[in-house]
Amino acid sequence: DDENLVDQEFCRWDARVNAVLEVIDKVKDETGRTVIYSPNITDRYSKMLERMDHLKDIGWDVAMLDVYMIGYSALLDIVEELHNAGFIIHAHRAGHTAETRGAFGCEYNIFAKLWRLIGVDQLHTGTGVGKMEGSPLIIRRYGQICREKSIDEALELFSLGFEWDDSINPLMPVASGGLDAGKVDALVEIYGKNLVIQAGGGIHGHPHGTIAGAKSIRCAVDAVMEGKSSQEKAKECN
């Protein structure tokens, strides 16, 4: 889901989730692939529990949280509830600019460490390309904070070194914002291959439509996994 899309009148949560999961079942029947969908359950705490139970009842085990919006105390509890129920937690950083910019802001690498400590499984960390701010070097650092057990300090990036206890799990960085097939090579150069790429606008905004956009992203990802450039692979996909 979009970070701003939870349960508005024009797109009710229950109806949207049920409709998307119907399509996911159809895709699996036709292709054998399981598509991951992260329904945004962010709301007051009681409502998040209600939505978690609904997802559990219909056999879905992925949920999305807007971590800044929920607040630390409630986030600790809902993460624990979701993990106890076997969920994968996709964490969106909507609202982070209110806490990471300006004279009173706190560098995002500190928050990334905090979300990892709390126990989310996937975390939005920027792109280094696309529309999100942040140099490739700092975005690479965020990816390392998510995945590595220990890293050295990098004061030029406003980041101290650390070594996680074995009880602290890694999480998967998520690149999202202004992405399309032409940026996959650069993303993998920044992050490596262990990342989630979200390219909604880059798919739906393709000049030949959504299906062509989806094929272009699939082609670019296949190219990276095969050690080819996306431009080279595109000739095979067209």
Automatic annotation (TrEMBL):
Pfam families per the record?
Answer: RuBisCO_large
**GO MF, one example:** magnesium ion binding
| Transmembrane segments annotated in the record for this chain | none
Gene3D superfamilies tied to this protein:
Ribulose bisphosphate carboxylase, large subunit, C-terminal domain
Domain spans labelled Ribulose bisphosphate carboxylase large subunit C-terminal: 1-237
Q: Which residues form a coiled coil?
A: none
User: What is the name listed in the Swiss-Prot or TrEMBL entry for this protein?
Assistant: Ribulose bisphosphate carboxylase large subunit C-terminal domain-containing protein
